[in-house]
């Protein structure tokens, strides 16, 4: 039993090993192999941490060379050559071409560290405790991040997660008839609404875990206006949908807005643990050392990240490739929705993140299992786990996209047939 | 100017780059070199993350080979060969020989993630919100961990850090005449003390950031008793002083006690970002996926960690080496205290963590700068930054220990001479 | 200077003495006289505490006789004849005829004590910390009550008012196009809305301080349904609009609903300090003495209250009188709105509580001052103090209603003329 | 059954009616009579609300006359003759002779309202959320007051009582060997103690509910010094032990210290509901109306209070009487302790508040019941209800003191005999 040791010693909290019950051994770009040599196409990309693929050859080569030369590995926030090179590359390839002038804050290498940091500096600068976030938002598991995360599955009454946060309706949360921006403006402008003026509003422009909900461009612009009007900081959590996922490097580029703070993690480290917070210079009110963290200087991630930025973001070649692939993914999603119209409520997405909302969540669970058996790693999203999502590595080939969707369609078909057979049997009894 | 790009683009929060203002390029075991080839002895070990040294040859070789073979890099909490091997090694080399039967929970690879996890599960299992920690305790920067961290430098009134925590006096906090265990027992046993029964007491058996305060063995045993008597979970934060720092793998072994929960990070990943929470099996009440984190499956760290465990903890050779080195460090600290008795109030420490408390914190700052100029990386501790601390890699040679202490003694001497000269000049004016 | 001693020794927090700057000496039913013998008609009724009028002859006679006989005055929650008689009268005159079977809890004699009590028992019974209240709600000044009070004027960032409360939109808060009940149902039913299931929803069926906002009957019924559907306790705060103010004893009778908890104060004590919490029997989970308070047994209030109940609520005579007076008040309000249509946005109200919302809040302040000079005590409401409100004692005569409204109309006229003259002068300069 | 209606309709929270199960009808000074004409001596004084006795003739006469003249009853914080007279009397009789220059803030007429007010203004003025209180402190039942009340009997995990409070050890809490002032100074002065600097320290100089714990004069002076040194406001809660209970009007006079804020309630209203907060003028930073409350202008209480102040506090006659009575009470307590030395651990007290701590709390319960049967109303104190306390009206005669103590001694004797008999029977079986 290859997974016996996990069952015996690892905490019950383990999750994905239950959805994908095998022992993985190797991986390359958009493909993974288990110990038995079985191959899987990856439509999951480590929940968005592997936008540049598994063991991307250019990245791996650089990391190996760095290790062979005894490059600095761990350095807290000391100055290192690898860190200097990353900053240089990020400024040149990302900030300068987009006319952005953020300061870079390196934090502990998890997304939740980045969110905690953003909440702290926003509260400190504005001198207000309140922070606003959105229905179905997901921002992480540490106490501060959890306080702005909607999904009650991650909460427990005893956690002692503090108040000082308010959740307001995301775009179209109440259907397309109710203008949630008007609601937000009303409660912020009314001294007796009971809602305190927040230091910041924390936003995913595309809610990934929340079910692939894409905020409209006009809605985003109006939200940016509200933040200006009420002197509230706009924090964009681009941990999952940044790093090219939306079709551009940042997910907010499509709306032409500039957040005050941006959090990046997952793929920013080229597959290695790393997080980065971007601050408008006037917000950089930290005292030296006021916010720290042992692994905020993971130099292997700096090396990997620099290669990724130099390779994919030096010009617009990659963005154009993403457009073509995105069109293919959208088409395959539409085919799926058309073919299984009885079971799929709607498809939603943008760039390289797409979801199909099923009417029956139990169906989805069976489909994912079947797809895995057939060689596809794919996951669900949404509070009710009723959305099946495409989140493949950005470097996936068109051939693999097609092969993966073929497996998915076949898996849906198999599950439906099995269900009908099962129902037939039950009816016959 | 090699550091110009940091000054221009990195947040003001950057800290160690100010204490050690150079651009580091390479490192090997207990030595580091900057871009100009200048060599430094490392008495800091990445704040305890580099117990096995920089670019430890055995570890690096294994990591390089793993990358060359396209081993799984990032895998969330799926099953991988590297993770299986780590669990196997940890159970065999660490848990079994010590008769410990913890469950392993892999969490986001920062210490603060581990603490947040421990606080959550403790509160969930006990159904109580309150958590107790100690004066001068340091546990991390995210909201939950910060709520049990003493040093007010890391707090800001606007952070909204929640209550539900109580700080009680550490061993000898009120001098050796006041029994802080008796105080703790009194307020826990008194229904009208105003102190709610906590779910857990979070303890560093040696407070590192707090100023190298070593809890006595009897005090630790009494604390363990109190926790049993009042049905409180004892959480040992071994992030900084675990992984061999105290002379054994865990810092609590010297007291013969078993915590209910142990948090590990820093050196547990063999120099790569990783954290681990150990739970008594009966506390493992998580639902699958209830606590998650993108980088909780950093397989490079698993590979590195497995090598570290197999190399250093398969038998007691390393522990014996540590005893000898520890005696050398203690002797050099005593020499220092004897030679500069007018300036050093006391020395404190155990195993491979030692501190000398100076009467004048400003002196310390100057000494560290001088030592750095002379080729030694050494840092301070304590709320008032009045303790200079030895925290070298555990694999440091006796020769380098001696060379480092020689630099340190010389730096103290230089600073004292400079001060006397300066005072003389001022007096002459 | 009659008020000099107040200016010299009383805290700056004093408020109404600034709006009504005289020294009051005597009062009878709906009239007050100051030390100079000047008479005022009372359209304010002690913010709803004097529904039965000042020095109501029947009440006063009973209280005087009780004092002359050395009846028990203060008794905490011991058994007294006066308390027994009150309970008997309340059950007979109020609960029984309305088929209500609440348990009575006597609490400290302020409204905020009653709300604190309701919040406590609701949280205790349901085991949930969260409580919901409405935009523009007003529930009191102690920490718990303040946490569900909307008006930010009463808040200060340093108060440390806790979270665990959510404010949701009241009826028509977003205009009559947005169904606020649908919004409430949506966020309660959605596990990822970020809004925790509350123990209770606290409601004023007519928001008095909030600007005389009257919830519709259908809205109230739907809210009651929601509370049943989600197992949430419905707490009606009838402190200001109970005791006959709405036309019936309880303000929720018009909707045919039964709250789980009702808070009463202000006029419940017949002019003397008293509060009362009504609990559905199955919610009465208190331990003996778990919630206490020195003045919860103010026996003078019991005596006064018993007279008030026996006099006004033994049959439906009083309710019918209220209907007639209410029609008169409504008519006079309509006249006002018609006559000053350029300045009044709308009138709102029910029973014996009515408000006229002015477009210009500064106008209102001048009108109230003028009315006071002309012998009428009348106050404002609303977050912006833009509503002038009628809140006269319920026992006020039709003659005094007419006289008071005449003064009010005249005051509006005077202020408008003065303003036009002033504008004319400024224009001429 | 005279109490049947209470059992049927009153909440289970009712408490004293269980300890004193009869229906009280009349009362005069220090005596009470039930409906059957049975007489009781009062050693409880309404938990300190009846320092001037039940139906004090002078007070009652003034209140009756006031009612007969239709004096203003309820007036929020408008100016009234009764309120002016009270302020005049309080300034003349209390503040001026003691060289105190407080501003007077009238708040809702319960002690907890006064504490909530003190917490708010302290936090607002200092801009700090943290407040400190003492082990075994009791300050009230609303959320803010409860957060600084020690006794866990009044707490429930679901109440959501907020943090921002720290309980520190009262005088002699850890025995007379541990200097709790030194502990306080240490944690306040240490930036890493984990204890935030509080806005205020809230103190009962004699803890009444907490078990009759009398803070020493030197301890009080040192605490006052600490508050000056750390810029912390000293709030004395004199609700129970003010108004002459300690032998002077304020309980802190014996230490020669001046608090920054003083809370008064209970007997301040001469038996009628009233509370008063005293603020050093520089702390009076309220906006007009920022803190309100319907019954903060209970004019009957002003009338009663003025008579009480003019009668008892115009010169030192009353204080001298209290000294004599206090000596008698102390002597009778000593006699009790001497006679029942096997059962009484110690006696504690000052002025007219004294307690005898029994070794066996169950004994106390039986003694109180026996005493009640024999015509004495007396209550317990302390977290474990192990203290029997004398808290008679201050105007009680020496004859009644002696008669009451005779009943008490006899009750102890009866209970002990009964227990011995019972034990004998059990032993014989």
Biggest interface and residues each:
A-B, 114 and 114 residues
CATH top level label of the largest domain in chain A: Alpha Beta
Give a count of the beta strands of chain A, DSSP E runs of length 2 or more: 18
Structural class estimated from helices and strands of chain A:
alpha/beta
Estimate percent helicity of chain A: 25-40%
Shape of chain A: globular
Which percent range describes the beta-strand content of chain A? 15-25%
CATH architecture classification name of the largest domain in chain A: 3-Layer(aba) Sandwich
Describe the strand arrangement of the main beta sheet of chain A, using strand numbers.
5-13-12-11-8-6-7
Oligomer: homotetramer
Whole-number tally of structural domains of chain A: 2
How many helices of chain A in DSSP terms? Answer: 13
């Amino acid at each position: 039993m290859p997974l016996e040791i996990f069952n015996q010693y690892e905490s019950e909290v383990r999750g994905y090993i239950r959805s994908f019950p095998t022992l993985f051994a190797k991986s390359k770009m958009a493909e993974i192999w288990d110990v038995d040599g079985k191959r899987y196409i990856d439509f999951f990309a480590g929940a968005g941490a592997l936008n540049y693929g598994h063991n991307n050859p250019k990245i791996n080569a650089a990391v190996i060379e760095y290790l062979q030369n005894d490059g600095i590995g761990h350095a807290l926030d000391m100055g290192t050559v690898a860190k200097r090179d990353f900053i240089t590359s990020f400024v040149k390839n990302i900030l300068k071409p987009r006319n952005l002038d953020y300061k870079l804050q390196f934090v502990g290498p998890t997304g939740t560290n980045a969110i905690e940091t953003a909440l702290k500096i926003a509260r400190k600068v504005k001198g207000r405790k309140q922070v606003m976030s959105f229905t179905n938002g997901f921002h992480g598991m540490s106490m501060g991040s959890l306080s702005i995360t909607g999904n009650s599955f991650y909460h427990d009454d005893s956690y002692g997660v503090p108040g000082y946060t308010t959740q307001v309706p995301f775009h179209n949360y109440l259907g397309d008839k109710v203008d949630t921006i008007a609601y937000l403006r009303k409660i912020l402008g009314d001294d007796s609404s009971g809602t305190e003026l927040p230091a910041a509003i924390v936003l995913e422009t595309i809610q990934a875990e929340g079910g692939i909900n894409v905020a409209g461009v006009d809605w985003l612009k109006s939200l940016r206006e509200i933040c200006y009007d009420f002197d509230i900081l706009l924090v964009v959590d681009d941990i999952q949908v940044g790093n090219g996922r939306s079709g551009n490097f940042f997910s907010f580029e499509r709306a032409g807005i500039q957040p005050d703070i941006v959090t990046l993690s997952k793929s920013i480290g080229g597959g290695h643990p790393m997080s980065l917070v971007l601050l408008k210079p006037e917000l950089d009110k930290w005292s030296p050392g006021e916010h720290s963290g042992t692994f905020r200087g993971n130099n292997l991630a700096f090396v990997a990240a620099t290669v990724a930025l130099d390779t994919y973001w030096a010009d617009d070649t990659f963005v154009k490739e993403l457009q073509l692939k995105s069109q293919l993914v959208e088409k395959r999603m539409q085919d799926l929705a058309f073919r299984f119209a009885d079971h799929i409520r709607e498809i939603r997405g943008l760039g390289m993140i797409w979801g199909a909302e099923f009417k029956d969540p139990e169906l989805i669970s069976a489909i994912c299992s079947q797809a895995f058996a057939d060689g596809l790693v794919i996951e669900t999203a949404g509070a009710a786990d009723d959305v099946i999502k495409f989140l493949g590595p950005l470097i996936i080939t068109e051939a693999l996209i097609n092969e993966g969707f073929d497996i998915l369609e076949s898996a849906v078909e198999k599950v439906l047939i099995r269900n009908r057979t099962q129902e037939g049997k039950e009816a016959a009894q």
